[in-house]
Amino acid sequence: MLTSDSRHRDFPTLEGIAYLNTAAESVPPVCVSQAVADYMHHKRLGMRGRDHHFPRVERCREVAARFMGLTPAEVSFCSCSSEAYNLLATALDLQSGDEVVISDLDFPAGATPWLTARQKPTVRLWKSHTGNLELEHLLPLLNERTRLVQLSLVSFYNGYRLPWNEVAALVRQHAPSAVLSADLTQAFGRVDVSGLDADAFISSTHKWTLGIHGGGIVGIPQKAAAKLTTTAGGWYHLGNAFDADRFERAAVKPGAASFSVGMPSFAALYALDASLRYLEAVGVSAIEKQINPLVEQAYEGIKKLGHQPMCALDQKTRPTGIIAFQSEHSAQLHAALEAADIHVMHHAGRIRIALHGYNTAEDVERLLGTLAPHS
Questions:
Q1: 83: nearest Cα among 94, 91, 74
Q2: Under a CB-based contact definition with an 8 Å cutoff, are residues 374 and 333 in contact?
Q3: Residues 227-236: pLDDT tens digits?
């Protein structure tokens, strides 16, 4: 990552291809494969393997907390971001008179729990304009009945990056009773996610963090722990799971700890511990410094070829790694890219590329050179 030698050593499967699809699936470094192998070695020890499993979870909690600017006690894990959002729904216990704000740039996992609830709250949609979310259009959606504002720091759809703390200031002023929840899935590991004002942070583990499937990261600052404690059943999140009164009451641990309702996904957390420590050693700031100019190069090159990116790239919407554009010839473009061993996302007329720390200037040149004859 960041040098040809480390890329060859740590990401051997990238040799010969231009992998520009991290927003869908990352390519983990070799150390993650070793971590999963460690898990299997420990698993084969039977019950004694747990002497290794649980300390590894705590190591993972520590490094995840550093990335998020939280304490380890404010970070927990579940099986995926969808589970985290459904657990958040149990904590909020929204009623028909409550209101929720989501945006049309969000992934379904953070939007649908409020649409499928038995007691459905009123869902207000913050609509994007020319790919951006304007603060002036958020303001009318906020009021004293707003119980939740759920938004993505970086949009999976087009890469738009919210000016998060400006959004937070509006929410705190005009919807003071609302829980502000941040989906970090398309940011965690690629951009700095510390220092954000939110009551809940949720991320998957198989994208920019370079981990694998089976994990979900949950951050609940201590100030929000009391009001964001799940009411789901389980055992791992209970303080009295095996006490004498366990069939009389369930003593749920508050805040983040309540989101780990069952046995941890050890393999995913072994992998996440390794991947986050790898990224920590490289440095997210170093990744941004080296890769953001490549994002800008790709953005300008795509425009010159006659394609209009779905999100403007300017001082306000700083590079995030994701660029998307629509084309009536998207199927042909995608076929050409596939033939050239360039990996991108193609869906419903949209081409999405994503650049992480293992990408190179050659990857961008290969992308633009392949698009040119078909544009």
A1: 91
A2: yes
A3: 999 999 999 9
Catalogue all structural domains in the chain, each as residue range(s) with its CATH number.
4-25+284-374 (3.90.1150.10), 33-280 (3.40.640.10)
Residue in the structure block whose two tokens are 């003071």: 176
- Phi, psi (rounded to 5 degrees) for 279: -65, -35
User: Pairing between strand 99-103 and 179-183?
Assistant: unpaired
What are residue 324's DSSP bridge partners?
352
H-helix or E-strand containing 19? strand 18-19
From CA 296, how far away is CA 318, in angstroms rounded? Answer: 10
The H or E element spanning position 170 is helix 164-174
Integer Cα distance of 50 and 225 in angstroms: 28
Residue 323, helix vs strand vs coil: strand
* pTM for this prediction: 0.95
pLDDT tens digits along 136-193:
999 999 999 999 999 999 999 999 999 999 999 999 999 999 999 999 999 999 999 9
